[in-house]
Amino acid sequence: MPFDEHDTPAILGQLDGRAFPQQLSAIQADDDGTTAHQMGRGAMAVRVTEPDGRTIDLIVAHLKSKLLSFPPGPTGRPRFQPRDEGERARVAAYALYRRTAEAVTVRALADELLGGQGEARQVMVTGDFNDEPEAATTQILLGPPGSELGTPGADQPDRGDKARLWNLAPRIPAAERFSRVFHGRGELIDHLLVSHALLARAVEVHTLRPEDAVGPHDGLPSMAGQDRAAGPGAHACFVTTWVTYEGWRCLGLGTMSHTNGDGEGLSERERWREAAHCHVDALITRRAGSISPCLGWR
After folding, report:
1. Among the four 27, 69, 194, 229, which has the fewest Cβ within 10 Å?
2. Where is the Endonuclease/exonuclease/phosphatase domain (predicted)?
C-alpha cells in the first residue's frame, strides 16, 4: 500500500493487560500441572482519529497456534512428535485451553471499548486467530449470535447490535477466502471483525498476494502437519475499504512475521515489537488523522 508525506506515522501501544479476566481461572499448560494466567503473545490496541473527529478503535491479537510442541527429549530440544497418542491429545487440549482463554481475554477488551454502544462506537478486532470462522474460539469473539453476514438475521436490527461484532469473511470473494494453505487446502484463520458502526462502511474486503502470483495458493506458506521446516508464519494480507466524508480509506491487515514463530533470541520488548510489525498495516490508515494507543484497559 503506497504512502506519501501526508500520511500520519503510527504510534504503537502495548496493552499492559495480558492477564485473563479475573473471573477466568488459570489454565493447565502442560503435563506437570503448570498453569497460565495470561495471553502468550498479548494484544495491542490503537485509536485512530479520522479527519472529521470520529475514532476507530483497532484491536490486534495473535492467538495460540494449533501447531503442537512437546516437552524436550533427551537432547533438551523441543519435540514436534509425541511419545504416544495420549500425549498428543493432552497437548492439543492444553493449546485449545490457551486459545480459548485468549479469545475470552480479547473479547473482554472489545466489550470495554464497545461499552454497549456498538451502533455508535467504531471497533475492529483483527489478527491471526489461528482457527476458521466457525471455530468455537472465533465465535467467542463475535458476541451475541444470530446476525452473521449471509444469514437471515444479518439485516435485522436487535438488542445484540450494541455488543455484537461481525466477521467480514463472507464479503471476501470466494476465490480469495483463505489466508494460508494447510495440507493443500486453503484456510481462513486471519479475520476482520467489526462493530455495527463500521459494518455499513466496509464496502469491500479482499486478500492480497504477490503481484507475480499465478495460482491462488502462490505466495502463501503450505503447511503439512507438524512441519516446522516451512519457516515463519506468513499469511495473506487483508484490505478492507470503507467510506469517509473525504472518500475512500483503506486499511491493510496482515500477519507476516520476520522471525521464527517463537521469537527465539529476542528480549520481551523486541518480541512485542516483532508482534507489532506482524500487524503494522493494521495501525496505519491513509491520511486518517492521528493514531494513539487506546487507554484505560487494566
Report:
1. 229
2. 61-209
Backbone angles phi, psi at 271, to 5 degrees: -60, -45
Q: How many helices (H) and strands (E) does the chain have?
A: 4, 14
Tell me the domain boundaries of the chain: 27-293
Distances (CA, A) of 104 to 188, 241, 292: 20, 28, 24
pLDDT digits (tens, 9 = 90+) for 46-92: 787 777 778 888 888 889 988 898 998 888 888 989 999 999 999 99
What cell numbers appear for 15 in the block? 496493552
Q: Which tops the pLDDT comparison, 131 or 266?
A: 131
Q: pTM for this structure?
A: 0.77
Beta bridge pairs of residue 258:
none
- SS3 assignment, position 281: helix
Query: For the chain, first and last CA: distance in Å?
Result: 34
Q: Using a pLDDT cut of 90, give the percent of the chain over it.
A: 33
Contact between 175 and 206 under an 8 Å Cβ cutoff? The reply is no
277 contact partners, CB below 8 Å, separation of at least 6 = 258
Q: Which three cell numbers stand for residue 114?
A: 464497545
Q: State pLDDT tens for residues 200-213.
A: 888 778 776 555 55
Rounded to 10 degrees, what is the CA torsion of 46, 195, 237, 2?
-60
102's CB contacts (< 8 A; 6+ apart) are: 39, 40, 61, 63, 64
Q: Is 46 helix (H, G, I), strand (E, B) or coil?
A: strand
